[in-house]
Structure formats: C-alpha cells, structure tokens
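Dear colleagues,

As part of the handover before I leave the project, I'm documenting each prediction I ran so the next person doesn't have to rerun anything. This entry is a single chain, and its sequence is reproduced below.
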Amino acid sequence: MIMVNGLRPAATVNPETLALFIWLEDQLRLRRSDYELYRGYYGGDHRVLLSDRLKAFLPQDLLHSFRDNFCQPVVEAVRDRLNVTGFTSGSDDLAGWAWELWQVQRMDATQGIVHAETLITGDGYLLVDWDTAVKSSRLTPQLAEMIVPHYSETTRKLDWASKKWVETAEIGGTPTARLNLYYPERVEKYLGKNNVWQPFQEEGDADWPLPWLDLAGEPLGVPVIHFRNDAHTADFGRSEILDVVPLQDLLNKSLVDLVQILDTMGFPQRWTLNVAHGNSKVDIVPGSMNDFHAEEDGAQVGQYPEANVDGPLKAIEVIVQHIASISRTPQHLFQIGGGQPSGEALKTSESGLVHKVKRKQVDLGNAWEDAMMLAARIQGVFGEAVKGADTDRLETTWADPETRNEEAFLAGLGIKRTLGVPRQQVWREMGYDANEIAQMEEDLQAEKAADANLGSEILRQFSQGQV
C-alpha cells in the first residue's frame, strides 16, 4: 500500500492526484532536513566534536553550547537593513489602503519574521486570504516546512502551491493531518482521517473544491506568496549561511584545538630526573617549597616551555576573515580586530553588504507588492473595492540600508531639492514612513494656512493705520 505523509489516499483519489501526493511528500522530505540544519546553525546548534578531556570539565548542560556562532550575525547584518517603510502607486487610494492594511496587520513586526525565515532557510512564505471575523484581507507568515511551491517550466511563475500541517488536538484528542492545494482559481482541502486522505470542507465552505475567483469569474491568483533568497531561476531559494556553515564548523574545531592546547600546555610542565619524591609529582602552589632528595648523581629539575597559541589564534582570525568575505559582512560587525571604522572607511567596509541588501530589496520588494496587490483584489471580492486595484501597481519603499554620515547626507538631499526632486521623495530617502509623510504634509499645509492668515491680518491692520 502506497503511503503519503504517513496516510494512504482514499480509494476515490485518481492516479494523477495520487502521483501529486507522492511528489509533495518527496519534496517536503528533501527540504525539511536542509531547513532544520540552517535553523539550527543560525540558533547556535552546531556539529562540534569535543574531546573526552573537554567533556570531563564542561558541565553536561553546556556540552552543546561550546561554539562561537558567526552564522547569526551574518543573517542579522542583512535582516536589520531590510525595513519596508511604505508603498507608492499611481493611485493614492491604492497606496494609502496598502499602508493602512500594513499597519492594521502589524506588518512592521511580521516583515521581520518573513525576512528572517527567507534569509535563514532560503524560502519565506506568506498566505494571503480573507479574515471573516474582522472582514479584512489577512497576511500570515508560514513555515517553510509546510509549503511546497510548483513553478511553470515555461513561464517560471508560480502555478500552484501546497500546505501540509498538523492541527493541534483538543485535550485528550488526536492530532489531525491537513493538506491544502492552492491553485489560481480554486483551493482543494484534504483531511487525514482513519489513515486516509480525503476531501474536506470546513465550516462555511459552500463547495469542494472551493472557488477562488473575482467578481468577474477570473482567477484571483495563488494565495501563497514565495519570498526566495538568491534563487535566480531555481524553484527554491538559497540560505544566506549555506557557504558559512562549513567555515563555522572549522572555526569551532579551531576553538576546540585552542582550548586543548591551553588546557594541556598553557602552563609550564615540570619534570625531574633522578630525584626521589614519590610519584614524580611536584606541587607548584604559591608559598610552597619542595625538598628534593637525589637518588644518584646527575639529578635535575626543569620545566617544558608553555605552548605558543599564536598559530590557532591566527587560524581563527583567518577563518573569520573568510566568513566576512564570502558573506560580504563587514568584519567590524563581528567585533574582531578593533573598533568600528568611521567616515569613508566605514562606507568602504560596508559597500559589499549595502549592495547585497539593495539587490535583495528588489526581489523581496516584488514579493511584497504581489502580496499587497492580491490582498487588494481579495478585498474587492469579499469587502469594499479598493480604488486603483485593477488599474495600478504598487512599489515597495525601503529604509536606506547604508550607514550614513548625517551631515553629508542632508547636504546631498538639499542638492536634490534644488534639482527639483519632490519633497516627499526626499522625506522617503530620509527614512520617514507613509504615515509620517502624510502627517508632515498635513502640518505643512496647516502652517501655510496659518502664515497666510497672519499675513492678511498684518495687511489689514496696516491699511487701517494700526501698525
């Protein structure tokens, strides 16, 4: 009997669907091990082999904590510079609606979750659907282990996606396996029951499969948005720490070597020759005095030199340099070799990281735009239509990823204004989000109105000879 996800398909499942179930199971199994590896390394769960000596003096609960984690700062250096500040569009109504939904959904925090998932595993996912409770479009981050995307070999666009998960049972109940297949025009839901996958309708579902169409009967689109890290033309993304993991293992091995050298040869080791003093032990403690009795002529007492640890320390330094180089992470973010540079030195050291972040902003920004446009279309089907959703597009705006010299930066913005760059664009480059810009526009108009009223009052008083 063929088993899929631990369950056998119902007898009514056709051969095509059965083949699909088997393919999904293979994809989930292949990806899950990679995701677990990268999540573990990001969190500090590394493959460190300790010697028996190290195991002896380390507490048992710290045996798995003996490592120096450089995977996390490699990810965080990029994640900290990926911050969506708003959306622009030819339609102010569409851009305003998108940013309002962003605020209501508290996406300022959710974007960090999606970006981290994308950078760590290579794949981040967002499910866009309708929340009947609050009557609004909803954006929910998904674990990469739950989702399998399927791309067209012809267009390289997402044809459909699946989500497989286990619902938590009530106290005393049995967990339930669930599987949803998301197509542009329909959603197929399956339930694992009595060891069989069978079609499933949730409360409120009128049909199976569930139609996913706009008011004109056209497909709404696959409700799963895939955020891929450096995927290029591949179906799946690439973990930001893929090339760092082997170096991280080598770094941890070098740390183990360093500790072993310090443990065994970090202090001078004494030796004696032809001296009778028990079991050849020499007590060296503050204030102690040893009285040796020679067994024969030629008795000697001496010590071996302490070990030179310059080699292991240099090896560690070189490994860190390699990690910084292949990940384009400035070394000062690892706090190795001195303090943080400033001025042009800082700009130069961060240039590789800044260019990498800007490249990711393009790919991730496209995914955010797809998510918000789909949310707008869904809003038009189940709620009130969004003006511009059918005719305009959104563009994601990001906070500047560059660590800047504030004085030079402001001077540059001043030059842009003299060249005719709109003040709202200047404000965006300064890092203000859509809400802050709208408030500043309102305050500016209020100031102009107040100044105009003040001028009129002064002119009236002057004409009446009061001033």
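Residues 40 and 254 are 20 Å apart (CA to CA). The longest strand covers residues 158-167.

All the best with the project,
I.
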